[in-house]
Write a structure and sequence with these properties.
This protein is α+β, with helices and mostly antiparallel strands and 211 residues long. 26% of the residues lie in helices and 28% in strands. The strands form two sheets. It has an eight-stranded mixed beta sheet with strand order 1-2-9-10-7-6-4-3, sandwiched between helices. It is globular and about 45 Å long.
């Protein structure tokens, strides 16, 4: 296992276990959202991409969602589709979340599933003007602030037992969301969450390129 992979695993597991920024979300009457949500604001490691002025090249779905499969432990997520949303507001719901993406220029989304049909997942990447805006979006996705929409056509996504992690990475936000794919499925979602978090490698690569 590479040093980068160890860091990704450690970050996700610590967030899920320690729960310092984790919330149990039980909103009623709203679109689906994660039952458990973990928020992480940006850190100094992403200083080289702390603003769009430092990192002006737009992301592409090929850059972020290049891997057809994401694997951690014995869990493999297969990519089922990618898209660039027409507007960042199309990716979210709720007043606070909508306001937080006002200056967002890109929202890229991908959906995944395991071959056995037990786990469904999606990732959304937002391109914000700076790390302060990214931090605001991460917070806005918490209790009472709104959340991201499920991609159209996704079925069997059991949001009531799902978990999501929002990470500010410089001027980007990665929202990764995993769930049992049916009410009968009872999978362990930890490895799926770790696998999905490997998408953030694109942002780490941008840090390296900027230094």
């Amino acid at each position: 296992m590479s040093t980068r992979t160890r860091l990704i695993v450690a970050a996700v597991v610590c967030a899920l276990v320690a729960g310092g920024g984790a919330y149990l979300l039980l909103g009623r009457g709203d679109p689906p959202r994660a039952a458990v949500f973990t928020a992480e604001t940006s850190t100094a490691i992403f200083g080289p991409i702390a603003g769009r002025a430092l990192d002006p090249e737009p992301l592409t779905v090929q850059e972020v969602f290049a891997a057809a499969e994401l694997t951690s432990g014995d869990t493999t997520l297969s990519r089922k589709g990618t898209e660039t949303l027409p507007a960042c507001q199309d990716a979210v719901w709720g007043d606070a979340a909508t306001a937080a993406v006002a200056a967002c220029t890109q929202a890229l989304r991908a959906v995944y599933a395991t071959a056995d049909g037990m786990i469904a997942a999606q990732s959304v990447i937002f391109n914000l003007p700076d790390s302060a805006a990214a931090d605001r979006l991460v917070r806005a996705l918490g209790p009472g602030g709104g959340f991201v929409h499920l991609a159209e056509g996704v079925t069997g996504f059991d949001a009531a037992r799902s978990r999501a992690q929002a990470r500010a990475l410089g001027h980007y936000v990665a929202l990764n969301w995993v769930a049992p794919a049916s009410e009968r499925a009872t999978p362990d979602l930890t490895q799926a969450q770790i696998a999905l978090d490997s998408i953030t490698r694109a942002m780490h690569d941008r840090v390296v390129a900027a230094t």
